[in-house]
Amino acid sequence: EESKWDKCYLAQILVNEAELSSPPQMTSIELPVGTVQLPSQMGFGVTDTDAEKLFRRLPELSLHTKGSNNGSENEPFAGERENIKANTFAKVLNLRNADSDGIAYENKRRIIVAFSTLENQFDPGRTEVQGAVPTINNCHPHIPIRNLGNHFPRDLGNRLGLRKLVHHRAKILRYLRHKSNERYETLLEQLGLERESVEGEFIV
To answer: Can you tell me where the transmembrane regions are (predicted)?
Structure first.
């Protein structure tokens, strides 16, 4: 059962411990304010286009604005300060430094991208996306929701919420089965789920 989850498509695209604990990979970019070290993976959905604006255009604009307002002779270290700010901001956006909310955001973003279509590459409303998102748990993203009861057997307070989450996912998957059995079977395999988890009774 565990190996089925470990090998499924969804488990492969989520942020995992190995990804966060591996040696950091940084990319150096030369800017007018100096060298900035950018992480290979950024959190909070920061794209390459966003990074271009944040680390190339924004420091230049800030430096130009300060120079215009105060005069370059009054800001001899303005470029150095902008460089420090840019490098500090890059560390904040590094996925390795993200908290649980940041990792949950990144996981949801990856799911939306992975389960969308080529025609609409970011489609959070697609049925496959809606079925995949509840399968991960924001607090313990490395544990699929079907196994949370085993990891926290005495946490009775959250069992009702967990049961509702499983039933909600099952309703989405049953809707997909009614709409397209081929897409339904494909999604079950991608999520590492058995038919019984959708069509049978739930034991949570």
So the answer is: none
Partners of 34 in beta bridges: 31
For the CA atoms of 185, 187, 190, 195, the dihedral, rounded to the nearest 10 degrees, stands at -50
* Predicted model pTM: 0.78
Q: Which residue has the tokens 């995992």?
A: 16
Burial 75-112 (b: 16+ CB within 10 A, else e): eeebbeebbeebbeebeebbbbebeeebbbbbbbbbbb
- State the virtual CA torsion across 65, 68, 74, 77 in degrees, nearest 10: 40
Q: pLDDT tens digit string along 99-128? A: 888 888 999 999 999 999 999 999 999 999
Cα–Cα distance between 33 and 197 in angstroms, integer?
56
